[in-house]
Amino acid sequence: MTTPVPRSHRGLFAGGVLLGLMAEQVVLFSVPLLIFQDSKELSTLGFAFALEWLPGLIAYPFAGLLADRDGGARLFSRVAAGRAAVLTVVVAVLLLRPSVTTAALMTSGALLSVLVAPVRMSVEKMVPQIAKGEQLAATQALVQNMELLAMALGPALAMLGAVLLGKVWLLGIAAAVFALAGLCWLPLPRVREKRARQNARANLAELKLGWSLLTGNRPVLLLGVLNFAINFALATLLSMNAALVTGVFKAPDSAFALLNTCVGVIGLVNLALIPFLLRKFSVQFLGVLGFTLLAAGLLLVGVTPSFAVYAVLYVAVMTGDALYNIYNRTQRIRVIPQEHLGKIMGPFYLLNLLSFPLAGLLVGSAATAVGPQNLVAALAVVLCVFGAVLLPLTMRSFRRAIAAREGLLVGAKA
């Protein structure tokens, strides 16, 4: 018999996740605009995007080990405090030395990238602790929709702060919100693994074990490869979004914030509809629907003539990504042993997110020559062909793995 999780714990969990994501959205609003307006170069924006993601990739496997040992709650709170400290220092530097704006923002992006990894691993580790059985899919959907909800509240907060205080002080607001996120998780139970202190060789052995468990888990490995392809096309669009809105379509900064707010409003609708959808449709159906919407939206972004049409397509792409990620998050948890979750999810995230710095490098080296819209369209075509082959294979592999796992559980109880 499982011990029921107090509703207050679920509320604090959701509140901490939401506040952390809101702060991230404020940073994602402020930093690209500050860099693009300071440098006036699309290539600088692309290389900044690559630098922002690259250090975090190295951190993910180690963050997975930390989450396995810590249980998630304390790690999340400590890292949230670290993110707040980084942004506080950046605000001071930008106010005292505005001539180093781009360099300071790129450096802080690299530091914040390292700190994203333990936050994501903490959330992955905490979800199974507060959600059991049928609640798992709904809780994973809640986490996914918190991301969309943050995209509504974060840019709205950013737009208001930009008008009242200016873009630099938005980073100070983000620091305060990160601190609040960490406070939310302080009362959550801290379940730590009891183990002897380990040396570097033992840690490397655990990292190797994580990679071997990932490569030996066929459905999760296929999912990671598919996610890489999706994220590569999506990250290319995300890295150029500020330049597309304010450069190609000549829209004001407020339109950039409003666009992300609209994505978040759709998140609110999703938040209300997902429980109904999960009762009526399988997570497999939602995965196919999400992938189709995302790929079609990316393809049309490459030919859209106006900001109004681009805005609709951008919202469609992000909504498709949210629907696909309900499948992505729910299925992988069902075939990964709980005791090895962090070890496997660290390399899994590394494989997934390697696409982000590579997309940034592609934008930095080719977007100006090829054209940002042409680049997105070309990647969308490749993604459509790749997904048409790999998505059915991945889903079939998950069905077999889940059936085998459930068969073992039934046999053990008999």
Q: What does the model show?
A:
By secondary structure, the chain is mainly α. It has a single domain (7-185, 202-413), classed as Growth Hormone, Chain: A (Up-down Bundle), CATH 1.20.1250.20. Helix content is 86%, strand content 0%. The protein has helices spanning 7-39, 42-70, 73-96, 101-130, 135-164, 167-185, 200-215, 218-248, 253-280, 283-301, 307-334, 341-353, 355-370, 372-413. Helix 1 (7-39) packs antiparallel against helix 4. The chain is globular. The mean pLDDT is 84.
Given the structure, what is the number of helices?
A: 14
Radius of gyration: 21 Å
How many strand elements? 0
Summarize the biggest pleated sheet. Answer: none
In terms of quaternary structure, the protein is single chain
**Which residues form runs of ≥5 with pLDDT under 50?**
none
What class, by secondary structure content? mainly alpha
- CATH H-level name... which superfamily? MFS general substrate transporter like domains
User: What is the residue-averaged pLDDT?
Assistant: 84
Order of helices and strands: HHHHHHHHHHHHHH
The CATH C-level class name: Mainly Alpha
Termini separation comes to 17 Å
Main location: membrane
Pfam families: MFS_1
InterPro entries: MFS, MFS_trans_sf
Membrane topology: Multi-pass membrane protein
